[in-house]
Amino acid sequence: MNLTRAAGAGTDKSGDVLVWAEPGGSPVQIEVESSVADLFGGAILAAVQETAAACGVTAGRIRIQDKGALDYVIRARVETALRRSGGEA
To answer: Is the dihedral of CA 77, 81, 87, 89 positive or negative?
Structure first.
């Protein structure tokens, strides 16, 4: 999937994550901002990388603002942002 426009998913509320995906260079650039980065930064990054790979994204930029979201919430928000950015409804 090619990212063709900027798109987002999620909220900045506690227990959620705000994800922005936009076109960019290869490989995929991922920026993670999280209040729990010291404890779970690696797991958050891995979840984003795995979701991007599963969606077939090889180039672009993904920004994460985590507010303590669980793994499945992060994956769902990333997938939604990527689909929106790739032109899927």
So the answer is: positive
**β-pair partners for 29:** 61
Which neighbouring-strand residues pair with 65? Answer: 18, 33
Q: Are 15 and 74 in contact (CB under 8 A)?
A: no
Axis-axis angle for helices 37-54, 71-85 (nearest 10): 40
User: Is the full-model pTM beyond 0.70?
Assistant: yes
How confident is the prediction along the chain (89 residues), in pLDDT tens digits per residue? 889 999 999 999 999 999 999 999 989 999 999 999 999 999 999 999 999 999 999 999 999 999 999 999 999 999 999 999 987 75
